[in-house]
Amino acid sequence: MQNLLDFNLPLLTDWLASQGEKPFRARQVFHWIHQRGEADFAQMTDLAKSLREKLMALAEVRAPAVLADRTSADGTRKWLFDVGIGNGIETVFIPEGTPGCSDADADEDSSRYRGTASPDDVARYRGTLCISSQVGCALECTFCSTGRQGFNRNLTTAEIIGQLWHAVRELKKAGWGERPVTNVVMMGMGEPLANFENVVTALDVMLDDHAYGLSRRRVTVSTSGIVPAMDRLAERCPVALAVSLHAPDDELRNEIVPINRKYPLKELLAACRRYLEHAPRDFITFEYVMLAGVNDTPEHARQLAGLVKDTPCKFNLIPFNPFPDSGYDKSRAEAQRIFREILQQAGYVVTTRKTRGDDIDAACGQLAGQVADKTGRVIKRLERSVA
Ligand code: SAH
Ligand code: SF4
């Protein structure tokens, strides 16, 4: 059986052509699958009966099976998907504002939502889906629970786009409107650029107007800094880029983000500047996880400000998500405040990631905590953690 979630539009067109079908049929099928969320070929009523029968015999639309589905008190929703013996991957939906209202980050790309904007007193809407790209991760960042679990395998395109397909379908049913997901961040489990082909094929589908039609500016790949793959992404599918910096010098970064030994900061920052020549946004987002006493002193902040002075960027400070035996602690509020102010005084825009869905362990970076656990344990832990 061919899973049609494995295809972007060109691949689906080729596959249907090999079955003797014309290109416009691919657009129709794509529309049914991704815009209507339809998995049953019998329901695709504007397709010729002969094509429906062919699809029923040869193909399927199959997202990974759902092991758990939890909604937090603050509206954050998390799915745990089954990706094989004992492994789960997680996907998190983070809503902000009121569905039907345009996004706070209004730009030319959001004009399609503006028509539905409501009175000013209603908060503007943004629905962000945080997607996983691998089962586990080989890069072994020391503060990351996914990295601690080791690498299991790459997700297929169907498993990556299946997370969005399933979420959109369920959220529409739950009354989140026709476009419940406005933004995607590849910040779940795994290193997206280490699973390049499957990730970019999934990105194609996210961006395709015949599917989800997301703006390039609202789809963000987060990488720990695989330099050659950043260049390939710039050529193949430039979307917004977030880079996990986490340290202001090579010595510390070698220790906590070991891929730095292969691609040190000077090369990484040069790759960021090259990326900006193609990027849909004119800055890179630097992620910086705040680890008490490790990378969060005023001196670290000053060094950091100097390090990136030639690279147009914004900072996103991430409160550390503790997990058992991590060996790290969250930065104190005061340390975070001073760190942020030093960067701001140096002229940088700094955001601090809000902690959402705490009651269901849904914060990014926390997702992997349960990856390599046996399925039973994962579900028990999820159940315990739900309000
Ligand atoms: N592999 C990619 C994307 C997935 S991780 C990357 O490393 O960028 C998404 C973000 O969560 C990264 O910035 C990562 O460093 C951060 N992260 C990992 N573990 C975390 C933890 N325990 N607490 C807070 N952030 C964490
Ligand atoms: Fe992998 Fe990213 Fe975790 Fe590092 S932070 S181990 S790259 S998932």
Notes on the structure:
It is a single chain. With 387 residues, this protein is of the alpha/beta class. It folds into two domains: 59 residues, DNA polymerase, domain 1, CATH 1.10.150.530; 322 residues, TIM Barrel. 35% of the residues lie in helices and 18% in strands. It has a ten-stranded mixed beta sheet with strand order 3-4-5-6-9-10-11-12-13-14, with helices on both faces. A two-stranded parallel sheet has the order 1-2. A two-stranded antiparallel ribbon has the order 7-8. Strand 4 and strand 5 form a beta hairpin. Helix 8 runs parallel beside helix 10. The radius of gyration is 21 Å and the shape is globular. The protein starts with a strand and ends with a helix. The site of iron/sulfur cluster (SF4) has 11 residues, from helix 5.
Task: Map the helices and strands.
Layout (H helix, E strand, L loop, with lengths): L1 E2 L5 H10 L4 H13 L13 H10 E2 L5 E6 L5 E6 L5 E9 L14 H4 L11 E5 L3 E3 L8 H5 L1 E4 L2 H17 L9 E4 L9 H12 L11 E5 L3 H10 L3 E5 L5 H7 L8 H12 L7 E7 L7 H10 L5 E7 L13 H13 L3 E4 L22 H11 L2
Bound molecules: S-adenosyl-L-homocysteine and iron/sulfur cluster (SF4).
The site of iron/sulfur cluster has 11 residues, from helix 5.
Radius of gyration: 21 Å
Helix content: 25-40%
Average pLDDT for all residues: 89
Order of strands across the main sheet: 3-4-5-6-9-10-11-12-13-14
